[in-house]
Amino acid sequence: MRSEPQHHPDPRLLPVTALSGIGAQSAARLEKLGIRHVQDMLFHLPLRYQDRSRITPLNQLLPGTTALVCGRVEFTDQIQRGRNSVICRIADGSGGELSLRFFHFSVQQSQQLKPGIQIGCFGEIRYGFAGLEMVHPEYRLVDDPAQLIEHTLTPVYPLTEGVSQSALRKATRQALALCLQSRSAIKDWLPAELLQSRDYPSLQEALQTLHTPPPQLSGQILSGTPLPALRRLAFEEFLAHHLALLQGKLAYKQWPAPVLHLDAPTKQAFLAALPFRLTAAQQRVAGEIEADCGQNRPMLRLVQGDVGSGKTVVAALAALAALASGYQTAIMAPTELLAEQHFRNFSRWFAAAPTRILFLSGQLKGKPRQHTLQALADGSAGIVIGTHALFQDSVHFHKLGLIVIDEQHRFGVHQRLALREKGQTGGLRPHQLIMTATPIPRTLAMLQYSDLDISVIDELPPGRKPVATSAISSERRAEVIGRIEHWVAQQRQAYWVCTLIEESEALQCEAAEKTAAALRQALPNVRIGLVHGRMKAAEKEAVMQAFKNRDCDLLVATTVIEVGVDVANAGLMVIENPERLGLSQLHQLRGRVGRGNQDSYCLLLYQAPLSQTGKQRLAILKQSNDGFAIAEKDLELRGPGEVMGTRQTGQIQFKIADLERDRELLESIPAAAQTILDRHPEIIQPLIERWIGRSRHYAEV
Ligand SMILES: Nc1ncnc2c1ncn2[C@@H]1O[C@H](COP(=O)(O)OP(=O)(O)OP(=O)(O)O)[C@@H](O)[C@H]1O
Questions:
Q1: Is the dihedral of CA 221, 223, 228, 231 positive or negative?
Q2: Are 271 and 278 in contact (CB under 8 A)?
Q3: What is the pLDDT of residue 232?
Q4: Interface ipTM above 0.85
Q5: Sign of dihedral through CA atoms 245, 316, 594, 606?
Q6: Is the CB of residue 276 below 6 angstroms from any atom belonging to ligand 1?
Q7: Number of C-beta neighbours around residue 681 at 10 A
């Protein structure tokens, strides 16, 4: 890295090579930690702190603790020639002794440790062959033990290979001096009204406190209580992410969009042809969508609804508005199965409409694919339903007015933004409707969905009965198999879901194959089908069709059936290894049964023994059939990090904020963001740049 001229006007923006001890090589390594300029050093905060404020007498050492000690060398021995390993015994007159083990020690280094010399060490105490020992501790030869004592806690920074802790400490101290003591201090963007009401320190104080904590805060830090200084930075970081998403929404809403108007007679005719009446919640949400689509600015709306709450028909009403206004609709589902199911529903609901409803997935090849692409391009197809294949470069729309994305959490934030790019017609941007059956607790929705307006279908169609759920140890597997036999004898159908760690689809499929084989042996009179993600689409379709037609009694499946299966006669579901899945996912899976008006059951076949939390989690599923309540409980038990996971957050990485530790801050973020939007819009961009960088990944619109 090239050094910039010495007379650079702003020390904050000097490259890190301006700090003594940081050469070009270290600078390249620091870049991996996102540190390029002097001011970046200040936002690289300590992971934890070490207490070197007192020397522990050797007779008071406890294994497993970290301590600062001081003693005189009794003897030093080379124990392993090859590794230059040295052992040294020290004593301090307290009656205690400690062994120090050093590796890769030079002859010169070991010769320094002469008997009688006084040495101070900092490190972890553990049991060794010859009593208590410290392995490769930091050490210093001292005349006076007082020289070892540091009155403030010592920061420990996250490291990158090739940059030592002491080099980072030294560089950070210099950076602090340069930035905080010069007139060009780091700019505090947060307005006073947000800081005062929270009793937060200024940015300057916060950074200073965290890098060089004053002695009076040691107790608080060591007890793990987050300092207001840390809270303040986490608050600022959450705020920056929230603002970035909001800004993405506001920017998108600046574009013109087609006005989609649904006239009353068309709507009435559509509703009258449905075999049911919309619930009040469906009507309300449909109204919200209608109002959005009637604007000349694009809708960005998320519909959250519990499993089976009837989201699809609400999306169909939006598609009807698009159709009535001369625009096309693209509906994207995460799996073939779900896309096919939507395709069947839409084909039925729009049978009388003067347009073509088409299906498009990666599996569609050759002539049929050509015809589909042609119909989308010339506008003869008004509605297309498919998988993410819909958004490949080869797909062109005549006049796309509405995009519906189902099960949005499977598509990351970034994919969602990329989709917005698609389908601009004549400078107009399509309206976007996103549907999810995974209820996200309100506080977390703030981080994930603040670029969307949210509607909730909080009512199930009448007559739905809760799925009676019980947890059964896998030791009672034979009993469960017996229950299936009995169930099938009553002309009912069932699912058997094999789960494994979700990432490993291959293993999941293998497990499903084995289970199907074992069940076929155990239940020779039951017709058993198997469906998993590695089968060809046509094979899957054939099995699903057989299950729908009642030519198959028991469907063994992987979690591919989580979404998209709607077979009213299937009222029993066995879920293997439920302890491995999130509660919301389990709730969604069991939502496959209980869709008709008959009694339905879910058996959670867990691997004993279950942990305490494992038991509590399954108990929640037994007690509740409300997806939102379940999601809140899951959040309580597992914490936000687990619940969101990387998949659901769309890989939001925080520098400082910790979803677990700083959870209660989330609640206050939307109001603080609103204050900034209303009264201090000029600080939005600098805050985003500070915490997220200049990358436009949130605002790619
Ligand atoms: N108001 C209603 N009254 C009765 N049945 C309804 C109503 N709305 C939808 N349904 C039916 O309920 C079933 C579930 O609807 P839909 O598939 O839209 O649910 P969903 O909210 O998408 O659920 P999931 O997330 O489980 O797929 C479908 O068979 C649908 O036809």
A1: positive
A2: yes
A3: 93
A4: yes
A5: negative
A6: yes
A7: 12
Res 100 pLDDT > 90: yes
Which tens digit of pLDDT belongs to each residue from 295-343? 999 999 999 888 888 999 999 999 999 999 999 999 998 877 788 889 9
* Residue (of 147, 80, 79, 148) closest to 89 by Cα position: 79
* Ligand 1 centroid from CA 231, angstroms: 44
- Could you tell me which residues come within 8 angstroms of residue 678 by beta carbon, excluding any fewer than 6 positions away? none
- Tell me the per-residue pLDDT of 645-685, one tens digit each, with 9 for 90 and over: 433 334 456 778 877 778 888 888 989 999 999 999 999 98
Closest ligand 1 atom to residue 278 Cα is 1
Q: In whole angstroms, give the CA distance from residue 290 to residue 75.
A: 85
CA-nearest of 331, 336, 338 to 437 is 338
Q: How far apart, in Å, do the first and last CA atoms of the chain sit?
A: 33
- pTM for this entry: 0.73
407 C-alpha vs ligand 1 centroid, how far in Å?
Answer: 14
Pocket test for ligand 1, best of 405, 408, 566 (most atoms within 8 A of CB): 566
Name residue, tokens 């090849």. Answer: 365
* In the chain, % of residues over pLDDT 70: 89
Could you give all domains of the chain from N- to C-terminal order, each with its CATH number? 49-156 (2.40.50.140), 264-457 (3.40.50.300), 468-624 (3.40.50.300)
The size of the chain, in residues, is 701
Asked whether 278 lines ligand 1 (CB < 6 A), one says yes
The separation between CA 445 and the C-alpha centre of its own chain, rounded to angstroms, equals: 11
- CA 153 to chain CA centroid, Å, is 33
Torsions phi, psi for 352 (to 5 deg):
-85, -5
Residues 307 and 669: their CA atoms lie apart, in Å, by 29
Question: Which DSSP category does 234 fall into?
Answer: H
**Could you tell me the distance, in angstroms and rounded to a whole number, from the CA of residue 1 to the centre of ligand 1?**
60
DSSP one-letter code for 117: -
